[in-house]
TrEMBL record:
Residues 1042-1106 form the V-SNARE coiled-coil homology domain. Residues 1054-1081 form a coiled coil. It is found in: Cytoplasm. The lineage of its organism: Eukaryota, Viridiplantae, Streptophyta, Embryophyta, Tracheophyta. Its main location: cytoplasm. Belongs to the WD repeat L(2)GL family. Residues 9-26 have a biased composition (Low complexity). Residues 1005-1014 have a biased composition (Polar residues). It comes from Salvia divinorum (Maria pastora). Keywords: Coiled coil, Cytoplasm, Exocytosis. Signal peptide: none annotated. One of its GO terms (cellular component) is cytoplasm. This is V-SNARE coiled-coil homology domain-containing protein.
Length: 1107
C-alpha cells in the first residue's frame, strides 16, 4: 500500500544546518527562564520548623536553602534562597505576613509571604548563636559567638531590616550583673520574658550562666549558673520510669562548676519558671519569679529556687537538644507539658519525651502526672507547638514533629491521653501524617504525564463539570481523614460564580499499587479529580493490581488507556456523567462481557490481555479508534477500542527482541482529483495510519497500522551501539519556513505530476501501489525528518531512510553527556525547540534542525534536586514548555520558557498571608483574654491609656491592634538608645497642662475609664497636673524671680504678672474643654464597650472567612 508513497528521492545536497534559520533567531530571543510555579511535598532535607498560630501556616526550612510553606486548602509554596545553605533559625513575624530565616553563613533574610520573595536581608559579621523574635512585634534579639546581644528591627513600610542602637557587649553585662564572664563566651540562648512587653530578656551563655536582663533599667534582675547552684538538701526528681522519685541531694560538691547549656524554654505563662537542658542530659527548672529579685544575690537560697529533672538514671546520657513547653489551663499556670528530645541513655531507642508536670504546691514538690515516650518515624529533626491563639477550650496541646527524611506528623492532646493508657503500643496510629496532595512515595509513583486539554465542545463541558474544584475535600487528602489538622492558612484563588471554569491541563499519575490518580492542574492550586482502580465485585482479573508502566489519554472523547507490568491494558471513560453496567475482557481468542452494578463517573469499560509481557508504551492513533501498545518483549499490538477487539499482534520488531521505548502514529491524508470533486466533497480525507516504532537499542521501524505489515525493509539504527531515549518526527512546522527541504530533488522530480489524478489503492501485500501516489503529498511527507535521541548523541534521518532501511544519517551531534529525557516544546506555530535533560541534572534548550544551544540551566539551581534513577518515567511536558517532575517526596510544575507564563498570573496564585484574618484578629476584643500583660511593667501613662481603652468593666480587654502599637512604641523608645547612656525613666515624662494642645473634636474617640479617685497614684498624677493647686482659693505669694524663672521671661514684675494672668485664663479655658471632652469620652467609652460586647457575640458565631 505504501511502496511509491515513500519512493526514495535523490539524496539532499546540503544539511539543513548549513542554511540560515529564522526559527533559531526567534528561539534565541526567548530566554530559558524556569520558575517553580507549583510544588507539593516536603523536601527530604527538611531540618527546622516554624508555626504561625494566627495565620495557620507552617514553614519548613531545609539544609539546601529552601523553605516550604504549608497552609490549608491544598495551598503550598516553595521559597528558594539564592544560596543553597542550611537554615539554623526560622521564625514568623506572627500575623504580619513575614518570615525570618538565618542561614549558616549568618545571613538574615526576611521573606515577604505575599510576594513570595526576600524583602530584605543583612549579612551579620560574626557567627549568630542565638535568635529570637519578640512575640507579636517586628523586633528581634540576636546573640553571637563573642557574647554580644543585639536588637534588630524590620520596617515593613521601608522593607528593610537593620540593627538598632541598643546592644549589650559582654563586659557591660558582667558589670550590670556583678559577675565575671570569661572571654569569648558565646550566647547560646536568648528569650524575651513573656507578659512584660519585651522589658526583660533572658541571656544564656556557653559556660552555663543565665542572666535575666532588664532593658529599661540596664541591669540584671536575676543571675543564675551552675556555680551558683545550691542543691545540697534540694530536690532531684528522677523520671526514669512511669513514677517520679524525689530525693534530697548531697553529692554535688565534687561536680564541675560549669555546666554547658544545650536548650532552654519558658515553662510558665508569666515567665517565672525557666527550663534549661544541658549537654550531660539533665534538665533544671529555675525559679525566676519577681519575688526573688528583691532578695539579692547573696540571700539565703530557697528549695524552690531550682529543681533538677533526670529522665534517665544512667551515667551517660544524650544532651537535651530540644525543649518546648505547652501550658495547661487545668494547672492554673503551675503546670503543663514539657517536651524534651534527649536526656535518655546513649544507645537507647530514639524517642520524644513528654512530661505532664505540676508544681502547685511549690517547685520543690514538683510532680510528674504522667510521662509519654513517643516513638519517632525516623531521625528527629525538629518540634513545634501548634496551639491556636484561641485554643482555650482544651486543657491539652497539639504539636508537629519533623523527622528525617522529610516526614511530618501531627499529634493532638486527645491522642496523648490514649497513649497514656496504651503505653508500650505503637504510637503511629495516633499521629496524623502529612500526605502530599500528589503522593509520590506512599504509594510510589511509577509513571506520570501532563496533558493539555483543547476545546472539545460538549465533551470538554462535561469534563469541566466532572473536574469542578468545588467537589474536592482537601482536608481529607492532607490529614488522612483527620478533621483537626491545624493548618488553615492562605487564601486560594476564588472562581467567580459567573466565570465559566474550563479545564486546561490535567496531570495523570500511575502507581506501584496499580492505582491511577488524576489532578486538575489548570490553577496553581491543584485539585484531585479521581482515583482509578479496577475493583468490581464478582470480577477477578489476574494481575490487575500490578504496577502501572504506561498510559495515554485521547482527549477528544476522554478515553484513558493504562498499561501495567502484567501486560494488561485498561480502557477508562472519563466523561463523568455516564453509567456503565458491563466490563469487557478481551484476549487474542476470547471476548467476554461481564455484568456488574451500574457505576457513575469514571469507569473501566474494557480490559485487554494479549501478552504477558509488561506494557512499555501506549499511543492512540489520530482517529482515537485504534490503540497501539508496545511491550517489553519487543512486540506491538493494535487494539480496536470501538469494537473491543484485537486487530493484530506483531512478532518481535527487532532481532534482538529489545523492549519498545517509543511509539508515534501519523495519518497519511489522500487527495481527490479536483476535476471529479463535487461541491459537497471535502478536499481531503483520512488515509492510512503509520506507526513509528523505536526500541531500546535504537532500532526504528515503520508499521502499517491497519495490517501490521512492516513498511520498512529492515530496521534503521545508528552504526554505533546506542541506547535510545526518544524519537521525534519533525515536519515543516518544527523546521521553520527558512529551512530547506531535504528532499528538494525529489520535489523537482515530481513537480510535473502535481496536477495528476492519483488515488491510493491497496495491493494484496498491504504495501502501497507505486502509481497510487499523489506527488505533492509525497513531497510533504518526505520532507519530514526523524530526530533520534540517544544517550550519547543525536541523529538526524530522512523519512525515506527509514523506508529503505538505510542506516546512514545526514547529521550527528555528540553532546558529551548522558541524556535521560527529551521533548519538543513550542510557543506558537513559529517557535519550536528541543528540551534535553541529562543525568547530571543539567537542562538544555536547543533549536531544531541544527540543535544549536540556546540556553541551559540545572535542576540543582531550579529546585535543588539531584537527578535520580527512573526519574525520566515521571517527567512530562506540554508543548507550551510546562514541565512536570517528581523527585522523592516532591512534585513540581515548572514553566521553562519566559513565554510559558500561565502559572505566573499573580491573581491566580494563592495568597499566603490572609489580610482579612489579620485585621479580624486585631479587632478581636477577646484576643487578650488569656494573654494579659502585666501592667506593672508598663509605664504609668501607658497603663492609664490601657485602662481607658478597657472601659469601665474589668472583663473587657484591650484592643489588640492599639495594644500592639503601644508595645511597639514602647520598645522603639527603649531600643533607639544606647544602654547606660541615658537610663530610660518614665518618671521624667511629666504631662503639663500648658503642653496640651486642645483642638476641635477629633474624629477618633477611644473609651476611657470612669474616674474612681482616692488612689495614691491618681492623687500624685493630679498633683502634677494641677501643679500643686488645691481647693484653697487663697493665692500663693511668689517673688519676682520665681515668676521669671517659671515663665522664662525677663523684664519687670508687672509684665510677668500680666503674662501669668493670661496663661491662667488660657489654662482655665483648656480645663473647661478637657472637662467637656472627658464627659464625651466617657459616653463614647460606654457606647464602645456595648458595641464591642455585641460584636464579640456576633463574631463568636461566624468564621473568619465570612467576615
Amino acid at each position: 500500500m505504501f511502496a511509491k508513497l515513500f519512493q526514495k528521492p535523490t539524496h539532499p545536497q546540503s544539511s539543513p544546518s548549513s542554511q540560515p534559520d529564522d526559527t533559531q533567531q526567534t528561539m534565541a530571543s526567548s530566554k530559558l527562564a524556569p520558575l517553580v510555579a507549583v510544588h507539593y511535598g516536603i523536601p527530604s532535607t527538611a531540618s527546622t520548623l516554624a508555626f504561625d498560630p494566627i495565620q495557620g501556616l507552617l514553614a519548613v526550612g531545609t539544609l539546601d536553602g529552601r523553605i516550604k510553606v504549608i497552609g490549608g486548602d491544598n495551598i503550598e509554596a516553595l521559597l528558594i534562597s539564592p544560596t543553597a545553605l542550611p537554615f539554623k533559625y526560622l521564625e514568623f513575624l506572627q500575623n504580619q505576613g513575614f518570615l525570618v530565616s538565618v542561614s549558616n553563613e549568618n545571613e538574615i533574610q526576611v521573606w515577604d509571604l505575599g510576594m513570595r520573595c526576600i524583602s530584605s536581608k543583612i549579612k551579620w559579621e560574626s557567627t549568630i548563636t542565638a535568635f529570637s523574635v519578640i512575640s507579636g512585634t517586628n523586633y528581634i534579639y540576636l546573640g553571637d559567638e563573642y557574647g554580644f546581644l543585639s536588637v534588630l528591627k524590620y520596617d515593613a513600610e521601608e522593607k528593610n531590616i537593620a540593627p538598632l542602637p541598643y546592644h549589650i557587649p559582654p563586659n557591660l553585662v558582667a558589670e550590670g550583673s556583678g559577675i565575671t564572664l570569661p572571654d569569648h563566651q558565646s550566647i547560646v540562648g536568648v528569650l524575651s520574658q513573656p507578659c512584660l512587653s519585651g522589658n526583660r530578656v533572658l541571656i544564656a551563655y556557653e559556660n552555663g550562666s543565665i542572666i535575666l536582663w532588664d532593658v529599661t533599667q540596664d541591669r540584671a534582675v536575676h543571675v543564675k549558673g551552675y556555680g551558683d547552684l545550691q542543691l545540697r538538701g534540694g530536690a532531684v526528681v528522677n523520671f526514669s520510669d512511669s513514677e517520679s522519685h524525689t530525693h534530697l541531694n548531697d553529692s554535688l560538691d565534687n561536680e564541675e562548676t560549669e555546666k554547658e547549656i544545650s536548650s532552654l524554654c519558658w515553662v510558665s505563662p508569666d515567665g517565672s519558671i525557666l527550663a534549661v537542658g544541658y549537654v550531660d542530659g539533665d534538665i533544671l527548672l529555675w525559679n525566676l519569679s519577681a519575688s526573688n529579685s528583691d532578695k539579692g544575690q547573696n540571700s539565703q537560697k530557697s528549695p524552690d529556687d531550682v529543681v533538677m529533672i533526670q529522665l534517665s538514671s544512667g551515667d551517660k546520657k544524650l544532651p537535651v537538644i530540644v525543649l518546648h513547653w505547652s501550658s495547661s489551663k487545668a494547672h492554673n499556670g503551675y503546670g503543663g507539658q514539657l517536651f524534651a528530645y534527649g536526656g535518655v541513655d546513649i544507645g537507647a531507642e530514639e524517642v520524644l519525651t513528654i512530661l505532664d508536670l505540676n508544681w502547685s504546691s511549690g517547685l520543690s514538690r514538683l510532680k510528674c502526672i504522667d510521662r509519654v515516650d513517643l516513638t519517632l518515624h525516623g531521625s528527629f529533626a525538629d518540634l513545634v507547638i501548634s496551639n491556636s491563639y484561641k485554643a482555650n477550650h482544651s486543657n491539652g496541646t497539639s504539636f508537629f514533629v519533623l523527622t528525617s527524611p522529610g516526614q511530618l506528623h501531627f499529634y493532638e492532646y486527645a491522642s496523648l491521653s490514649m497513649l497514656k493508657s496504651e503505653r508500650g503500643k505503637n504510637h503511629s496510629m495516633h499521629a496524623s501524617q502529612y500526605n502530599s496532595l500528589i503522593p509520590t512515595v506512599e504509594p510510589y509513583m511509577t509513571v506520570g504525564k501532563l496533558y493539555m486539554m483543547g476545546s472539545e465542545g460538549n465533551v470538554l463541558g462535561s469534563l469541566s463539570k466532572a473536574f469542578s474544584p468545588t467537589k474536592q475535600h482537601p482536608d481529607k487528602m492532607l490529614t488522612g481523614g483527620s478533621a483537626k489538622w491545624p493548618l488553615r492558612g492562605g487564601v486560594p484563588y476564588q472562581i467567580s460564580t459567573s466565570e465559566c471554569y474550563t479545564v486546561e491541563r490535567i496531570y495523570i499519575g500511575g502507581y506501584h499499587d496499580g492505582s491511577v490518580r488524576i489532578w486538575d492542574t489548570s490553577l496553581p492550586v491543584l485539585s484531585l479529580v479521581s482515583v482509578l482502580g479496577f475493583e468490581v465485585k464478582g470480577i477477578e482479573v489476574t494481575g490487575a493490581s500490578a504496577p502501572i508502566s504506561a498510559l495515554d489519554l485521547y482527549s477528544p472523547n476522554l478515553t484513558l488507556a493504562i498499561g501495567n507490568e502484567s501486560g494488561l491494558i485498561f480502557l477508562y471513560q472519563l466523561q463523568g456523567n455516564s453509567y456503565q453496567a458491563t466490563v469487557t475482557i478481551v484476549t487474542e481468542t476470547k471476548h467476554q462481557v461481564h455484568h456488574c452494578l451500574p457505576q457513575e463517573g469514571n469507569y473501566c469499560s474494557t480490559i485487554y490481555s494479549t501478552l504477558s509481557s509488561p506494557v512499555r508504551a501506549l499511543r492512540f492513533a489520530t482517529s482515537g479508534v485504534r490503540l497501539v501498545a508496545g511491550f517489553e518483549c519487543g512486540q506491538i499490538a493494535v487494539l480496536d477500542t470501538g469494537s473491543a477487539s484485537v486487530i493484530f499482534v506483531t512478532d518481535c520488531i527487532s532481532i534482538s527482541k529489545s523492549p519498545i521505548t517509543s511509539l508515534s502514529v501519523r495519518t497519511c491524508p489522500t487527495y481527490h482529483n479536483p476535476a471529479d470533486k463535487s461541491d459537497n466533497e471535502t478536499e481531503s480525507a483520512s488515509g492510512p495510519e503509520v506507526v513509528f516504532v523505536l526500541t531500546k537499542d535504537a532500532q526504528m521501524v515503520l508499521v502499517d497500522c491497519s495490517t501490521g505489515n512492516m513498511i520498512s525493509s529492515q530496521p534503521t539504527h545508528p552504526k554505533e551501539k546506542s541506547i535510545a531515549i526518544s524519537m521525534h518526527i519533525l515536519d515543516q512546522r518544527h523546521l521553520g519556513e527558512g529551512s530547506k527541504s531535504v528532499s528538494v530533488t525529489y520535489s523537482q522530480h515530481t513537480e510535473a505530476q502535481n496536477e495528476a489524478s492519483v488515488f491510493i489503492h491497496k495491493n494484496q501485500s498491504g504495501l502501497p501501489n507505486a502509481k497510487a501516489v499523489e506527488s505533492n503529498f509525497g513531497h510533504k511527507m518526505l520532507a519530514s525528518q526523524i530526530l533520534l535521541c540517544c544517550e550519547e548523541a543525536f541523529y538526524f534521518y530522512t523519512l525515506e531512510s527509514l523506508i529503505q532501511g538505510d542506516n546512514n544519517y545526514f547529521n550527528k551531534i555528540e553532546h558529551g553527556k548522558q541524556c535521560s529525557w527529551t521533548t519538543v516544546i513550542k510557543r506558537d506555530a513559529e517557535r519550536y525547540g528541543l528540551v534535553v535533560f541529562y543525568q547530571t541534572g543539567e537542562i538544555e534548550l536547543r533549536s531544531l534542525s541544527d540543535l544549536k544551544l540556546l540556553g541551559e540551566n540545572s535542576l540543582m539551581s531550579i529546585l535543588r534536586w539531584n537527578f535520580k534513577n527512573k526519574m525520566d518515567k515521571t517527567i512530562s511536558a506540554s508543548e507550551e514548555g510546562q514541565i512536570s517532575l517528581v523527585n522523592g517526596c516532591e512534585f513540581a510544575l515548572v514553566p521553562l520558557m519566559g513565554y510559558a507564563d500561565e502559572f505566573r498570573t499573580s491573581k491566580q496564585l494563592p495568597c499566603l498571608h490572609d489580610k482579612v484574618l489579620a485585621a479580624a484578629v486585631d479587632a478581636d476584643v477577646n484576643y487578650f483574654q488569656n494573654q494579659k500583660k502585666e501592667e506593672s511593667a508598663l509605664p504609668g501613662f501607658v497603663n492609664n491609656l490601657i485602662k481607658g481603652l478597657k472601659g469601665d468593666k474589668e472583663e473587657q480587654h484591650m484592643n489588640n491592634a492599639k495594644g500592639r502599637e503601644l508595645v511597639i512604641a514602647h520598645l522603639e523608645s527603649i531600643f533607639s538608645r544606647f544602654p547606660f547612656s541615658e537610663p530610660f525613666s518614665f518618671e521624667d515624662l511629666e504631662l503639663q497642662i500648658d503642653d496640651l494642645d486642645i483642638e476641635e473634636p477629633v474624629p477618633y474617640v477611644s473609651s476611657s475609664q470612669k474616674s474612681t479617685g482616692g488612689s495614691k497614684d491618681e492623687a500624685t498624677e493630679r498633683h502634677k497636673l494641677f501643679e500643686g493647686s488645691s481647693t484653697n482659693t487663697k493665692p500663693t505669694v511668689r517673688t519676682t524671680e520665681e515668676i521669671i524663672a517659671k515663665y522664662r521671661n525677663t523684664g519687670d514684675a508687672a509684665g510677668a504678672a500680666s503674662q501669668a494672668r493670661d496663661k491662667l485664663m488660657e489654662r482655665r479655658e483648656k480645663l473647661e474643654k478637657l472637662s467637656l471632652r472627658t464627659e464625651e469620652l466617657q459616653n463614647g467609652a460606654q457606647n464602645f464597650a456595648e458595641m464591642a460586647n455585641e460584636l464579640a457575640k456576633n463574631m463568636e458565631k461566624r468564621k473568619w472567612w465570612n467576615i
